[in-house]
Amino acid sequence: MHNVGLAGLTFWAPNVNIFRDPRWGRGQETPGEDPLLNSKYGAAYVRGLQQRDDGKKDGLKVGACCKHYTAYDLESWKGSGRYTFDAQVTKQDLDDTFNPPFKSCVVDGNVASIMCSYNKVNGKPSCGDAELLGGVIRGQWKLNGYIVTDCDSLKEIFDKQKYTKTPEETVALALNAGVDLNCGAFLANFTQSAIDKKLVNEAMINRAVSNNMATLMRLGFFDGDPKKQYYGNLGPKDVCTPASQEFAREVARQGIVLLKNAEALLPLSRTGTKTLALIGPNAKANKTMLGNYEGSPCKYTTLFDGLSTFVKNIAYEPGCELVSCANVKLDQVKNVAARSEAVILAMGTDQSIEKEGLDREDITLPGQQQALITEVANSSKGPVILVIMSGGGVDIQFAKDNPKIKSILWAGFPGEAGGGAIADVIFGLHNPSGKLPMTWYPQSYVQKVKMTDMDMRPNPARDYPGRTYRFYKGPTVFPFGFGLSYSKVTHKMVKAPPKLVSMALGKKHACRMSTCMSIDTEEASCKIEAIDIHVSVKNEGTTSGSHTVLLFSTPPRLHNAPHKQLVGFENFHLAPRGEQMVRFKVDVCKHLSVVNEEGNRKLALGEHVLHVGTLKHSLTVEV
């Protein structure tokens, strides 16, 4: 794209914000609700964009940018908007939940850029907070790159937030805080006058220019003829290749989550299924599959297209033309459902329901979709399969409980090849292995919890249930990490650490003088040899497929710690009747620690419980 003049070489991705609230319109852009997952995803995404194949270690293939720093996860909800929202965040939640993915982008991924967000954090604009930018990103994490604003952030600080009195004060606020580049015209228009008014000094200008120029150098902008550079001859011929199109389909397959499969209905027989009814507004959706910040697809494979390669006799009825589903054509859909061997319902949302700038107020299916699904289920001759395309979770408890709806698939927004990938899963060419990256809550949750409440931890005093699987203990439609398979997989603990793990403290350590509940992980004395967890995973079925093992820990009830947190995960392929040994190396001080109320990472003393599925192993940490 760069070589043909359609793009630069700095891309503002990935979005590593925490999917804190199910209503958030941009949750679809993120890895999910867990800080460790987002951290690993962010660093891997950055390395994928940036690392070169020609051995230039400090060179950049493409400059990545982790966004939006920080505590940004609200678009427009009941009068609160992202340009003026003041996120009131505790120090504990900031360092425990919101900031870890950004730290990982810098420390583990060596990202070229961090983007500061529109919102304020505890009263200060993110793009004008010297502690958050210069102090943390550049000071603590040692960013090797530039800090950029979200588009027109500085204009919003002045115009909408009214945090500064003049444009020049806004420029000074941002540059002095650590901003190097502004998306928009604010710095271009007002930096000179800010210098003239002695609000900005030459050192700040030099720093910003140096950081930007260094990035251009790493990208090769001063290395001579672009066509003679390593990536200089890539062009349109390299885009829509058969390999890349198959890869798009494989990515979509891996992201599909099987949420229900009563009586092992799926996969459907490839030879025995002669007639299908395909119903729903997303049955022939194409652009919907791309989500937002979409590219230009090589071609679309809709769900109708994908299913047509397996079954020639498909009776198609949209039921309602748009996902808003204001009017339902019940007679038509009931007729096709009644005469087909099986019914596939393609429902969910699109960018008219959830997107950048648009949060949901309800997490039920839009309009009359639930009524349509229920009527079809009542009328169908054969089993019903529900396919949901959406960015966020949906309260589909009614479908989960309906015995006529045998199977439910969540495809997210699966990309240009999504329809083919869904068909591959339905007809057994692919064994689903996806896991939910976020909690699916009931509608009652969003009726109770304000989207503007940033607290992660529950507060019984005000009947606040907390957020994400780490802190919320209420009812769910489907929990974080949930996902079924066509295989029956069993786990067995093969190796685990001793029940007691201890460490020695220095002679003058404070914990020798009095009883301690935890010790600071930054201390030199917090040294315990990494412990090994070995889990044997066996495929008891006759279908091969991928499987993901999630390792969680439950720390002692100290410092208002999470009741459960992800420690690691491993994905691998299992042959029919195959067995695989999964090895986790757990750094006690790093992986089992928690963040205390002051934002410091602490290792709690006492009993920690490690668990994989239904397996549990307890160990006690003492000094």
Strand order of the largest sheet: 9-14-13-12-10-11
**Largest sheet geometry:** 6 strands, mixed
Q: Which of globular, elongated, flat, extended, rod-shaped describes the shape?
A: globular
Question: Which runs of at least 5 residues are low in confidence (pLDDT < 50)?
Answer: none
Question: Structural class, please?
Answer: alpha/beta
The helix content, as a percent range, equals 25-40%
Mean pLDDT rating? 96
Task: Quote the CATH topology of the largest domain.
Answer: Rossmann fold
Number of strands: 25
Distance between the termini: 57 Å
Domain unit count: 3
> Which CATH class of the largest domain applies here?
Alpha Beta
Radius of gyration computed on alpha carbons = 26 Å
CATH architecture of the largest domain: 3-Layer(aba) Sandwich
Determine the number of helices (DSSP H or I, runs of at least 4 residues).
18
**CATH superfamily label of the largest domain:** Glycoside hydrolase family 3 C-terminal domain
Strand content: 15-25%
Task: Please outline the helices and strands.
Elements: H1 35-50, E1 65-69, E2 76-77, E3 80-81, E4 86-87, H2 91-98, H3 100-107, E5 113-116, E6 120-121, E7 124-125, H4 131-140, E8 146-149, H5 153-159, H6 167-177, H7 186-196, H8 202-218, H9 242-255, E9 257-261, E10 275-279, H10 303-308, E11 313-317, H11 330-338, E12 342-348, H12 369-379, E13 384-389, H13 397-401, E14 405-410, H14 418-426, H15 443-448, H16 468-471, E15 489-495, E16 500-502, H17 510-513, E17 518-520, E18 531-539, E19 545-554, E20 565-574, E21 579-586, H18 588-591, E22 594-595, E23 601-604, E24 606-612, E25 615-622
Parallel strand pairs: 1-5, 4-6, 5-8, 10-11, 10-12, 12-13, 13-14, 16-25
Antiparallel strand pairs: 2-3, 6-7, 9-14, 15-18, 17-23, 18-21, 19-20, 19-24, 22-23, 24-25
Helix pairs in contact: 1-3, 5-6, 6-7, 9-14, 11-12
